Amino acid sequence: LHVRSRRQRQMCIRDRSKLFIHSSRKSLHALDGAYASLLHGRSLDFEDLRKYEYGDQVRDIDWRATARLGTPLVKRHRAMRMHTILFVVDTGRSMAALAHDEKSKKDLAILATGVLGVLALRHGDDFSLVYGDSDRIRRRAPGRSEGALEHALRTIDQSIDSSTASSDRDALLSYVTRTVSRRMIVVVITDEAPVTTETERMLRRLRVQHDVLWLTVSDADPVLDHATGTIRSDVDSMWEVPDFVQGDPDIIRELAAQTEADAARLAELLKRMEISHSVLAGQDDAVSQLLQLLNRRSNARL
User: Of 27, 52, 67, 125, which residue is least crowded by CB atoms under 10 Å?
Assistant: First the structure.
């Protein structure tokens, strides 16, 4: 795909990642304000004042200017020290399956990466990408442009489509601990695979060096609460779910209990390690869930 202009690049990013389909301008302002909470410890120089927008931090309000002009104003600053957002994305074949909203997990992972990537660009930060499966793990060089983000999103798209190997989350985390020494904000994007003792060990090492966020892309239910004429199959084993089990209440309860137990173990582990976590169930709610995640981090530091 040849991109000839800035406008075409913007349109391409929107088409590939669907960044703005389900998000309003107000949502993006809110994300902008909340995103700043990721960048604690930044060296800032005052730049100017602007009107308060939903999502801005109360601590950024200039109360004297607000009282003088009669409208809430916040201080804007120029960052003197940039940060790097490192996206660690599982691109194994399990990510080619369906998400909880019955749409592609791949598209949901691309959406999450794209939203946070756009915010990084708008705040002048670098981003990088680590991706792979059980066969191979790769890393893209840091970027700070719409073109670089477009290539990163396309890389995730193509890697998941072409992967014939199983996912290996622990290998991805191990790769980051071994190869990335400079402090970064690490955003892990993976699915609901149960955590292992190795996962916990790698997270402990990551947490010492980096600020970590964890985004879980939830899987579609393998057994539905109603009969369906569609054959559902597992992308790893290729085992087909027999149609007669669809709607079976006992199987549904057992699977739900196992899923809840796995989710509870992950949530407890991440909470204990003070790692911010969000579960992305579908594309329609992804932006609001990211906003809630960023706001929780912001409120935790107030």
Answer: 67
CA distances from 115 to 168, 199, 223, 288 (A): 24, 26, 31, 11
Token output for 169: 């989350």
Tokens 């579609």 — which residue? 220
Contacts (Cβ under 8 Å, ≥6 apart) of 290: 31, 112, 115, 116, 278
d(CA 200, CA 206): 10
Is 53 in contact with 20 (CB distance < 8 Å)? no
* Dist CA 110 CA 116 (whole Å): 10
Predicted pLDDT at 43? 46
User: How far is it, in rounded angstroms, from Cα 119 to Cα 217?
Assistant: 20
Q: Decide which of 12 and 79 is more confident.
A: 79
- Residues 240-282: tens digit of each pLDDT: 888 888 888 899 899 999 999 999 999 999 999 989 999 999 9
50 vs 40 pLDDT, higher one: 50
Least reliable range by pLDDT among 38-47, 64-73, 96-105, 136-145: 38-47
Is the pLDDT confidence value at 151 over 90? yes
- 76, β-bridge pairs: 48
